[in-house]
Amino acid sequence: MSNRSTSRAYAAALSTALIIGFSFLFVKVALQTADPLDILAYRFLFAFAAASLFAFPGRQGLRNVRAGAFKMLPVALLYPIAFFGFQTFGLVHASSAEAGMIQGAVPVFTLILAMLLIGERTGRAQKAFTLLSVVGVACLFAGREGAVFSASLIGIMLVLCSAFSQAGYNVLARKLSGTYSPKELTYYMNLIGFVGFGLTSVTRHTADGTLPRLLGPLASPSFLLAMLYLGVLSSLVTSYLSNYALSRLEASRVSIFGSLSAVVALGAGALLLGERVPSAALLGAAAILAGVIGVALSGRRPDSAKAALVQPASAAAHAASFASEGTPDAQQSSRRDGPGRR
């Protein structure tokens, strides 16, 4: 794989972490108007609508999605269905600090699953930097002001299932990236999210006799703005960027960038909401950054590492790739670049 392709993959993973890091601000806005399950339903309604308008995989891509629906279903069930489902109910019983610390272990879970299921091999340096990042996440959440630990077994188990779901998605999406393009996977994942969470929300309101209330949040401009961010950017765009990165990098390398979301969220809370950042949280953030940089550079040739740092690759470049990948030539090129076609 060329240095330029690798650099773009790292930029995609970094962009994903930045977008998700700011998503908590918009979740807080949305929660003022709707409950978590309705937010998920609207989130993937917006995501799938945007995918159909701006990220449609094309006729050939749609045929590939239909033909491979059964093979891609486990990926979509793991993420977004299982990931958000377990997380939503887990946060009812577990604190955000506990959830953040458990989610911080996703890179370790991914590393183990990738080794067992698809035969990925990692060096000692990468393992050490991955553990450093996990420890950093634990320090960051444990050291945050107001951190609470409920020690609820059911809450911890649900959040743990959410973390394993994300790790499983990382590995299976990496495996399927040699067969399906990032746009095809992204379109299918958001379709399943829209159908799954939409049906759940409609069924719940119908059973409770509160179906008219489901449309209530649409009258709030702030809710619509939050859904545009959470649906289009934090769901559709990030799922494409993740699938793009997983088609070019090992799952264990891509997953480590998820830890950066905690650092971004910490900084956003301090800068935009005036939250105080304790020294323990700063130490954890530093450990996360060191771990991510170490994983990105470990096991790579010096010229590759230098190229990844020198060559700029902006989120706009990925947006251009996102918009153009639907053509038959682009889809064929994407498959040729996938890990199974090298």
From TrEMBL:
Region described as Disordered: spans on this chain: 320-342
Family, per entry: Belongs to the EamA transporter family.
Name of the protein in question: DMT family transporter
Top-level taxon of the source organism: Bacteria
Phylogenetic placement of the source organism: Bacteria, Bacillati, Bacillota, Bacilli, Bacillales
InterPro entries reported in the protein's UniProt record: AA-Vitamin_Transporters (IPR050638), EamA_dom (IPR000620), EmrE-like (IPR037185)
Domain EamA: 9-141, 154-295
PANTHER family in the cross-refs: INNER MEMBRANE TRANSPORTER, S-ADENOSYLMETHIONINE_S-ADENOSYLHOMOCYSTEINE TRANSPORTER
Membrane-protein topology: Multi-pass membrane protein
Transmembrane segments: 9-27, 39-56, 68-89, 101-118, 125-143, 149-173, 185-203, 223-242, 254-273, 279-297
One Pfam family hit: EamA
Entry annotated with the keyword Cell membrane: yes
Protein's cellular compartments: Cell membrane
Keyword annotations of the record: Cell membrane, Membrane, Transmembrane, Transmembrane helix
